[in-house]
Amino acid sequence: AGLASWLASARYLNELECWLGSARYELELAREGSQYALTKIEKVNMKVLEATDLPKLQYLRCIVMETLRLYPATPLLVPHESSVDSVVSGFHSQGDNASRILSYGTGRPTDFIPERFEDGKSDGKMLIPFGMGRRRCPAENLGMQMVGLALGTMIQCFNWQRLGADPVDMAEGSGLTMPKVVPLEASYEPRASMIDLLPKI
């Protein structure tokens, strides 16, 4: 199960980029979210985004967390097993029985609202794509950093234009991971202010 989840997570990195891009366009309909995030990034510095800048970009972090809440890497988390009888949320579980958490089912409501994470108080109860407790994914911080840098750099360095005028199709596919049924199609061009810095990425 651990190997399966590791393979799923590796594959999901590519799919997450598609979900993040789609969510970004969904966010623009609500409050010009990409421009807001870009403004925050530009306030940090005028160089290419680095990992040390991420703690100052709370709204960017909120976008990543909201995307992971709605579209977790693996819908079913790694199974857990108790060696003795126990009670979980009022249900009796016999010892040596494996239990799995459906992280996809906990990602409700379905509205994409990054602001729900702005106060930092909703992190634990609303976000479990990495699991919870002592056995949560040890690479959680690394994953959040990699995704934050990828999304932040995409917003900072490029102007994006979605192809087509139809609403973004956010339908989910099936499988070990959760791909989009219809991949996002978009064109991009470097921002004029970043052209000299792009070779340094």
UniProtKB/TrEMBL annotation:
Named cofactor requirement(s): heme
Keywords, in A-Z order: Heme, Iron, Metal-binding, Monooxygenase, Oxidoreductase
Chain coiled-coil ranges: none
Keyword Transcription regulation appears in the UniProt entry: no
Signal peptide from the UniProt entry: none
InterPro entries per UniProt: Cyt_P450, Cyt_P450_CS, Cyt_P450_E_grp-I, Cyt_P450_sf, Plant_Cytochrome_P450_Monoox
Organism domain of life: Eukaryota
Keyword Iron: yes
Molecular function as annotated in GO: heme binding; iron ion binding; monooxygenase activity; oxidoreductase activity, acting on paired donors, with incorporation or reduction of molecular oxygen
Ranges annotated as spanning the membrane: none
Binding site for heme: C137
Family, as annotated: Belongs to the cytochrome P450 family.
Protein name: Cytochrome P450
Organism in which the protein naturally occurs: Eragrostis curvula
